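Hi W., the coenzyme A complex you wanted:
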Amino acid sequence: MRPAGAVATRADLPEVAALRTRVFVEEQGVPAEVERDALDATAVHALARDERGRVVATGRLVERGGVAVVGRMAVDAAARGRGYGAAVLAVLHRQALARGLAEVELHAQVSARGFYERAGYTAVGDEYEEAGIAHVTMRRTLP
Ligand SMILES: CC(C)(COP(=O)(O)OP(=O)(O)OC[C@H]1O[C@@H](n2cnc3c(N)ncnc32)[C@H](O)[C@@H]1OP(=O)(O)O)[C@@H](O)C(=O)NCCC(=O)NCCS
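Structure:
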């Protein structure tokens, strides 16, 4: 069965934050104060749960100048490659369209570039470093 994602409710946010800490802070070494930022307060947060109900994937959407910006995509290390990331991204795409935003941009970790290409994104410009990790800007138009 393909996993389904959902928009996170307020009650889900502690579990979402815990997953992000596991992936970005503990696994990737991003400083906690960089991982959490002011955009979290206004972002749309999406999640997916595994068959036992645990939050295993998340991502967020913010608007910047009429463009939807996807970020903080994280899947639990033990749950990768099972469609959870794609399910979360699909929720964020639906949320962007619901807000009238058809252009989506993100800063992809270079190691995840293929994941976003599978989801219809194209890299634009050169690679650069962000939080000590190589990134590339990617864009797509919805739907
Ligand atoms: C990148 C990440 C979000 C992908 O999530 P995932 O749940 O493992 O991906 P899915 O299982 O939904 O994969 C969807 C498709 O992308 C492909 N894919 C997944 N990760 C990929 C990668 N790193 N490179 C190339 N292709 C990838 C899958 O094979 C699958 O292809 P298919 O449609 O042909 O079956 C996840 O691996 C992760 O959290 N990584 C660590 C944190 C990170 O890098 N975050 C991204 C920050 S920009």
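The two ends are 23 Å apart (CA to CA).

W.
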